[in-house]
Amino acid sequence: MINYFNDYANLCFEKFGDRVKHWITFSNPWAVAEKGYETGEHAPGLKLGACGAYKAAHHIIKTHAKVWHSYNSTWRREQRGMVGISLTSGWGEPVDPHSQTDRDAAERYIQFHLGWFANPIYRGDYPEVMKNYVGRKSAQQGLGTSRLPTFSVQEKTYIKGTSDFLGIGHFTTRYVLQKTFPFLQVSSYHTDPDLAELVDPSWPAPGPKWLYSVPWGFRRLLNFIKTQYGNPLIYVTENGVSETVQCSQLCDEWRIQYLKGYINELLKDSLVTHMEMVTEIVLPTVFTLCILISIVLLIFYLRNHS
Question: Residue 231's closest CA among 277, 264, 193, 263?
């Protein structure tokens, strides 16, 4: 399948690369793996439980890397485009920010969602906490190897750095806390990280049970990406909200408020970036110029009085 997909991608590069300059290999691979091979909600509708999602994700990551290398070696010089991947993730906030247990649980939430795909692409391997938890659960089940596949040394090197930009889909946030599941003979992706998700009743909710408007979570997710993955170029590829209210005319007040809140959080990051630039570049430059001007004035003063 890796080779078949790579053939398909190269055909697209050949036919459309003179016009298309931004390519996304996979959009929301988390849903492809989890809903396609764990719960069976999406195509191909398989319910493979304990290892289905992990195997699917493993092949998606290797396929993405192969396509990136194909573009890089064959098409980039002529077409001058970019190849990335689009990852969808919520933000996990610890229920008690002063509790190390809750902070660790929130970290696992992010790593089992975003880090599952981003960590191999930007750092060369699955998140350590993911390897530890799935490995331990696998051992408890009496399995000889972890249900989470492993990359060879060559594969890690091949995969690391295979993204010219990172697409991010983000919609909502959850409070997260530790939850230890009883020993299960058949564990799953959902029980492996030992955590529970909560929502704040005060968060605005448009109707869908999973979607709450929590704009500040978006900014925290972006800051996490910046620090974890070397401040990559980011395109927001998915964001928005559905509206369940039945209207005879257009009624988009809820959607307007949602988008305004999330965009404002992005603008805060933009403001912080500008302030960092002022602090790191402008202020030292002004300080240096002041010193030079003071030296020049001092020289003129000494000459006039000598």
Answer: 277
